[in-house]
Amino acid sequence: MKLGKILFIAALLLMSAPGLRGAEYMREITVAADGSGDFKTITEALEAIRAYMDYKVTVNIKNGEYHEKVIIPSWLENVDFIGEDRDKTIITYNDYAKLDNMGTFRTYTVRVDGCNITFKNLTIRNNAGRVGQAVALHTEGTDLSFENCLFLGDQDTLFLAGHDSELSFNDCYIEGTTDFIFGPATAWFENCRIHSKADSYITAASTPEDVEIGFVFRNCRLTADADVKKVYLGRPWRPYAFTAFIDCEMDGHIAPAGWDNWRNPENEKTARYMEHGSKGAGANPDNRVAWSRKLSEKEAGKITEGKK
User: How far apart are CA 4 and CA 230, in angstroms?
Assistant: First the structure.
């Protein structure tokens, strides 16, 4: 057999090997920790997705616990990550800020730099515990959607970054202790449960001055552990923080004042904090800080109309 033919056959065999399936740029991928899918880890599956493709790729993730630090790079777009069962499909890691002087922004379990990406029926968890800043989800990309997902952590559970990024969370459960939803992105939370595990602060937006809308919670439910008695809706990580709660149900753990200035009265002049239609034991519109706003029906409607 001629050498050229031998090399051609060898190349075909190598391309068909399981470890090199990424060369095929698969459009339908199955990840299963038990080895029954195309790949055993999510990180391996990412190598099978073509950069900057203009078609949809679906990554089906079977039930299991995936102990890995996942980075979805900026060159991956138009991908759906679909879990089998949100309570049983778990991506987890345990980095935290004080571990080898890691700093907050490297502690993520999942970091998403790509755009036009959907996550559905998944749990993303940082299980470091109450050891300081420990991010579960860190986003930098835009047009990201999270549907029926659980985000589990303590301090800094969600870091939503990107100056012009826009994200949506629908029917999700988000828990944490301090500032567990923070960052500069525009983020829409619809029909979510926001659960506090300590007397502290829910949000710490850092909305840039030139960005019209930051965090918007609509038709959400705010709950807490039984021993939690005093939680603020937010405090401004940066002066022009924007956070709005619209038609949300708030349990009695929400502090009557609602908002905190982060020990800086100057923030009261710039922070954009507002509510409309709050209900429940934690809704105290007459006792909120004077520098927050009560939105009219029209004003609340205008904000929600801005959602893509």
Answer: 75
pTM score: 0.91
User: Would you call 119 helix, strand, or coil by DSSP?
Assistant: strand
Q: For residue range 118-171, what is the model confidence (pLDDT) as tens digits?
A: 999 999 999 999 999 999 999 999 999 999 999 999 999 999 998 889 999 999
Q: Where are the alpha helices (DSSP H) in the chain?
A: 3-15, 42-46, 297-305
- Sign (positive/negative) of CA torsion 163, 204, 127, 124? negative
113 is catalytic: no
CA distances from 260 to 193, 200, 233, 237, 256 (A): 22, 10, 8, 11, 11
Residue 156 annotated in active site: yes
Pick the catalytic residue: 95, 156, 199, 260?
156
- The answer to whether the CB of 25 falls within 8 A of the CB of 53 is yes
Select which of 80, 85, 113, 179 is catalytic: 179
User: Which residues, 6+ apart, have CB-to-CB distance to 44 below 8 Å?
Assistant: 31
Interacting residues of 202 by C-beta distance below 8 A, sequence separation 6+: 176, 179, 180, 181, 194, 196, 222, 231, 232, 233, 234
- Closest C-alpha to 81, from 103, 104, 100, 60: 60
Contact 253, 230 (CB under 8 A): yes
The order of strands in the sheet holding 221-224 is 64-67, 89-93, 123-126, 150-152, 173-176, 193-196, 221-224, 249-250
Largest CA distance in the chain: 88
Residue 198 CA to its chain's centroid (Å): 20
pLDDT digits (tens, 9 = 90+) for 163-215: 889 999 999 999 999 999 999 999 999 999 999 999 999 999 999 999 999 99
Q: How many residues does the chain have?
A: 308
Q: How many whole angstroms separate alpha carbon 283 and alpha carbon 227?
A: 19
User: Helix, strand or coil for residue 56?
Assistant: coil
